[in-house]
Design a protein that fits this description.
The protein is of the alpha/beta class. 28% of the residues lie in helices and 26% in strands. The protein has a 7-stranded mixed beta sheet, sandwiched between helices. A hairpin with a 2-residue loop joins strand 12 and strand 13.
Length: 225
Amino acid sequence: MNFRDPGTGFLVSLEQSSSDSQVYEQIFMQEEYRAVLEAVAEYGIPMKTMIDAGANVGFTTLYFKDQFHDLRVIAMERSPDVFKKLKRNVLNNQLKNVFLCPKGLWSSSARLKADRTFRDGQDWSFRIVEANESERADIETLSTNDLIELNELVNIDFLKIDIEGSEKQLFESESLSWLDITRVLAIEIHDEFNCRDDIEGKLREKGFRLSRSGELTVGVNQNLF
């Protein structure tokens, strides 16, 4: 189903037999990321670069491109089926300066496989786990530092992390130097993996002021202001 979002005018593509409609409602109707816009306004963050890790079908990218037309977005989605829908939503709206990456964000290079047993098993719950030697590994990943190097990033103005539990492994990386150039982030921490205290502690150690907004933890790097 295709229709025009009344608020942004973007052409939105939804598959009704998936979680697309729930994601659309969260992003556009409930404005899940309104707290990020408020932080950007409060701190005068120059929104030039965004990493959308766990881009799903691209609604968060659309939401922020509506607010910041010149924003450069690197949208990462590791599910091949969902990536096709992400690509469709970006191309249908002829978005400029949006770069699509069909890989997952992880702490390092690893042998990974898809896991569809998390939560309701729909597209928005697609996650990746490490594969053992006897299992097929079919998911490509990048570390955050590799992503920064490949895209020659000096700053990450906004980092969105919604990677269905993989945030635990991401923050267990030996190097969290990517946080030093991140101005604001929004992360969905999945409490099933008992990693909230560790992640929030490391963010505070890096100088982030944290707040909660719905399912999101929003952090502003006080060292960069």
